[in-house]
């Protein structure tokens, strides 16, 4: 009898019932009030008159009227750079002990995003909320006695003057609570290994010693790790070595494109739970099995705003026009696409995180990530977001029974006009012209703007199929193997030329 597991499951069930239903709209008002109160005496708070904003009964309206939108470059160039000059109380009281390194999807120099003690606590509290939500998934008691393998970036953080730097997954893992350490795998020593291949090799070596019940990490890197474990121990599937594996917590990118190849590594179905942990904070997690949408963490250190997604509001560099209107959680509508804006306990204010979301349930504050502002494909009026591209890819995988865990594309200009040029990561030998034809048909059926564009400047679709390892090598070249990497789904022509040159050299 699983005494410990039954006890833990019972505590989770009781705690979840005690906490009851929350009120996301009221929680958001309270979060904004606390943010402004904490930061009113900072340099930022004084410039943007937080104290005056707090004198209003409705603080949400004057807040958005007083404070402009910021992307990373704007807030870093005007404010956060001061943190590296030993200034304190800049955009948040004191100075941060950590900076999250995030190169996003560009491969350029890493962003350095402040991570305060309050943010670490907020991430921890959001993680606890997610654990409590497991009571909704009807998992057996023995699940709560197994280990969770978290595959993120190295926890061996970089010392830089008076703070530490690393990816947010590494920072989070280095601050796991003591009560969780017994469940956490691969353990602190292996997690510190900087070289991703070396770390995975050590995980594969130790795999038989662990009883893993849950996996957590970016889908592409989780897949590669599982393949290494299967290969080293000559297994048919991962359940041969981890028979109690029941949950996979995905995050960072949409799981859809990886589902088919992921399932091929399993011996039996597992429960997939989506999470949304960004360098700027723990944004959302899937809280119930009836949907794959994620519940915003509305009462825990992050205030959300939503800008209706309109190409006219998005500038050429992917930043946001100051004329773009923002909505509060009480004003959003189901099924609309929004640019996500956040203000946080790390001193990010009206910050463009770069993602677009859609509400599937407004009352529950549940969302799906629909894409990136920089990945919106509108070169010739096709107006395609990443979720539309993912949907078309799902159609391809089902039609031709293919596995396509990675892809990228560009609206590339040829002599006779523009073509959406796709590179699909697959080992399939399917005819690329047939795939291109089906992609074109799927996008026409799903998106009226694409259909119109195909009668004008957009001449058609070209498809090239390459081994998925080429995508992993591309990310490795950009020093982004493992961790929080997000492959560029849509590239500009200049970057795409680099990609095509890279593919040719790998052929």
Explain what this protein looks like in three dimensions.
- With 507 residues, the chain is α/β, with parallel strands linked by helices.
- It has three domains: 24-118 and 292-373, no CATH class; 138-285, Rossmann fold, CATH 3.40.50; 377-506, 2-Layer Sandwich (GMP Synthetase, Chain A, domain 3).
- The chain is 34% helix and 22% strand.
- The chain is built from 17 helices and 18 strands.
- It has helices at 3-19, 24-39, 43-47, 50-54, 60-66, 72-78, 117-133, 168-173, 188-191, 196-206, 219-232, 259-263, 386-400, 432-446, 448-453, 468-477, 493-506, and strands at residues 98-102, 111-115, 147-151, 158-160, 163-166, 184-185, 212-217, 247-251, 271-278, 281-285, 294-296, 302-308, 337-344, 351-361, 366-372, 406-414, 417-425, 458-466.
- An eleven-stranded mixed β-sheet has the order 6-3-7-8-9-10-11-15-14-13-12, with helices on both faces.
- The longest helix has 17 residues, at 3-19.
- The protein is globular.
- It starts with a helix and ends with a helix.
- Residues 297-362 form the GH3 middle domain.
- This is GH3 auxin-responsive promoter.
- InterPro entries: GH3, GH3_C, GH3_M.
